[in-house]
Amino acid sequence: MKLFYALLIFLLNISQYQFQSLPCRTNCSDDQCWREALTYRSSELVEQLFSFGSLTIHVDTFLREHPDELNDTMKFLDEPLQNYLVNESKDSHLPVDLFSATKQRLINACRNLTLTAIKDISELPSLACSTRTCAGDILNYTVLFIVATTLATLILIICVVQLVKTRRQSSSLVTVQRPGPLLNHLSTTHDTSLNSQRTCNTKYGTMKCWQSTIDGFAYGLSTTMVDYCQVTLLLSQTKDEKQKLSWYNTSRDILIEQINGYNLDKRDRQLSKHDVEQIATTLLNKCFNSPLTISSPQPACPSCSKDEKRSIKQWNLISLISFTISLFLILAIIVMYIFQTKSTHRSYQSIG
């Protein structure tokens, strides 16, 4: 029953876990909205920078496995990123020079990651597309569904164990049953490497597949850098110097907070938090201290397509059903526990 109480406490406190992604705010007119916009854009930027570092290790490992394809990992990554930065900055009416220093710092830091080959597969960081989009809400419901399913499965196992123990105790009070090994065999496996599930992995992938993957990550990083720059540029245009300094410090603090809060596996070869802080701060300084004046509104938030909205509704329904089943199973195990307690008490009374 201790495991049951632990699960029950976890279920009651599950609301404390932040499954919802950070709110994306635009067209801000008050300080709180601007802080939320900064937090969202900073989180996006930090995630994209770390993801680009992970991509570098995967691409470098692939090219070491296929030396006949290409010998320059950073050139393979640098050119698409530069092209997307040029295009995205042009679309946003911003000079690409704003991003040159930041991009070069990033490339230099990533180049240091590729000086030597990884010695073990555990050094290979996980690589997944960004979830900080409209589809991130789908992920929230997916996580909720997994948690609910796990709880329901464990509770069902507890119910079965308690039922077996109750029947054995009712049939023979002399026999003392030791805790069954069932719960001891429960284990959760986690594969930190996505190579076995990715179409283009480090061993059997193709240049075409990796080029497409790089294009996706480069586009995501370039748009994130431009969006972050637009927000900080708008904040820097205040004429009050004290307020301007205050917003700079706020922007820097939020950025560092997001970096420090990012979860890194110590076994992975990855950009350090210090590296990312230096890269992101370079972008902040370039954009915030730029004499450029822009009249464009804040960058728009990701919008949901019809298919995404349909998927969100489906996952929402599945999650609610899963939690309902979990609650029913909790009620079932409570009833079974009460029944077992009363049955044992009556059995001892009959013996006495």
TrEMBL record:
Membrane-spanning residues: 138-164, 315-339
Keyword terms of this UniProt record: Membrane, Signal, Transmembrane, Transmembrane helix
Cleavable signal peptide: 1-19
The name this protein goes by in its record: Uncharacterized protein
Native organism taxonomy: Eukaryota, Metazoa, Spiralia, Gnathifera, Rotifera
